[in-house]
């Protein structure tokens, strides 16, 4: 409501548009004094409806923009309205010649001439930012830009306008984002149960596990415009992500001209890190070229460990981990406007994550709980680590009319990972006398190729209806080899080759229709998956082959109602799934240390979720109440192996259920204070039922996050953000302890935003941890750990060049006479 009042006041005063006093008087008069004869003519003629959407420079819907429809050439105002939260507008008028004028604070006026003969749906109208100069004083309006907003069930995190853009990488952004959790292993999840699928600009990132985390480390945070998360996306998104999806939207360059931006940062606490990125774009009316490069150099420290009580005997292990890998990435984008209705675009990128690493582990072994019997000192010296990724994409988009659009895409991603790890193990007596030494050596290598072909079609016969449909075919080929030696001799029991092929064929349709206040959307996605896993061990009896095939339908349905007051009530249902990671299907046993093992499981089944969500939003407040049930859910579970060893295996172990209430509040509290808060209340039920183990775990939990953006004197902007997660049930029998952190950021811009300097201190209290504990039969396990989350970061950003936005073919003097 505040935005609406502000827009109306600005329309009357003419502040943001630089109108003269006389122009303001004429504008007010034109709005309020439409002659009765003109009204009679309009009402007596057949009415035509004109609709469209207004977007800002980040292609985000502009709320409360003023839309005017003016007759041509006599300049009479016949209709006006304000855009909704998605930037949409709708006007009614008699057929004729008109000028459409769109105005919003902080943007140049957009004008479009048109002939209205029947109801028409315009394309997107893009607004260009502008600072208004009055003699020697530059007046710019400070838009209300809260960190978090909610639109039609999607939670939008506005990275580009916050301190998150200065953190370094996309993985760092996700770690500090409200409502998103990143584990110590780089696993990303929303608050809901089930896995989370990751998209970049609406395109699914098909990498998994460590490969996905490696990609996110090479994606600079300064390239991100916003992050959208949705617990119940429609059928145009793949069904992967039982817990929902996260879509990373990158910044886009619009208009014509040359533009160069660069940023450089240094971060320090335990280790010094330096990162830089460059982005260049050269755009003409018929083609656009973009080049980018970024790197992040330095070390990252982690400390973790566990205390285990097994069969009455205790062991305590502590590890100091130093990751010395550096990241480098470069990319090229090219788009060619073949005709006014068709465009061809290609993109190519390469990224490298490479460097050594070292873990040093000390494990104390006890008889009972207090009698020390020995000490194991182990190292993992990664003399070589290298992750190389190539990605290539081509897209053709054709719009035969304003109502139709066809998009064809082809993608290929190649991933190549290798490591060389020397693992010396020294055994000591309680008095620290060396008893024996062994040298282990491991050499894992991994190659993954992902091919995908996509076809998407959109048909919008009217402003009220939209049909989406599409086909997708994908092929994943993964080859893994693992060489393990003990004291220089090959260990045939732990060395192997594993090949995994997965073919997917998918089809979807989604139809949406809206009435005056009611909107209904229904979709269905069909997916067929065929898998082939082949293990080639050094011993003949160790070779295995596993085939699988599965055909499934995944429906979704949403119904929403908009109240006269502006409140929106929505009911959504969706069914989704999570497929096992490729590496979890490798049926082989790996040695982590002499007392800990990991083993894959080729018999893993996908886990499926059913989710129902009821949401309500009104101005600054959004409420969501949901229930999720996850069947055949799988997770990594630690079991006892013999008297003194443990083994971790991923298994389908039962059913999970979760009920949750989430509240999001975003508002400008004062002209200098923007505030956002996320609150989540959850109740979790975990029913383990596998092999001979049956147990139910249930527990309530909560999460809180808040962000404050304060405009200080001298143009300084202060940002204070905090997160807290209460104790919560883990995936199996473990319980995670409470954790949280506070971030502080200070920044200032010069030269109209071209030059920006930011100073950040993340995890101010160094309280971000991943501590947990749990008991299963005779095994009691408690683990702890923290990374180098507290960092002092200094970032300098600069933009060079000028973008010229395409002008209208006809200069419309009529509007100026208003």
How many runs of DSSP E, i.e. beta strands?
A: 49
CATH homologous superfamily annotation of the largest domain? TonB-dependent receptor, beta-barrel domain
At CATH's second level, what is the architecture of the largest domain?
A: Beta Barrel
Q: Report the span from N to C terminus.
A: 27 Å
Percentage of residues in strands = over 45%
What is the C-level CATH assignment of the largest domain?
Mainly Beta
Q: What is the tally of helical segments?
A: 6
- Structural domains: how many: 2
How large is the radius of gyration? 29 Å
Mean pLDDT: 83
Main beta sheet, described? 22 strands, antiparallel, barrel
Low-confidence stretches: 1-45, 131-142, 803-818
Q: Briefly note the structural class of the backbone.
A: mainly beta
Helix content: under 10%
CATH topology name of the largest domain, in short, is: Maltoporin, Chain A
Principal-axes geometry comes out as globular
Tag the structure with descriptive keywords.
mainly beta, disordered N terminus, Immunoglobulin-like, 49 strands, Maltoporin, Chain A
Kindly describe this structure.
The chain is mainly β and 818 residues long. It folds into two domains: 2-35 and 47-140, Sandwich (Immunoglobulin-like); 256-804, TonB-dependent receptor, beta-barrel domain (Maltoporin, Chain A, Beta Barrel), CATH 2.40.170. The chain contains six helices and 49 strands. It has a 22-stranded antiparallel beta barrel. It has a six-stranded mixed β-sheet with strand order 10-11-16-17-14-15, with no helix packed on it. A hairpin with a 2-residue loop joins strand 29 (465-486) and strand 30 (489-490). Mean pLDDT is 83; it is low at 1-45, 131-142 and 803-818.
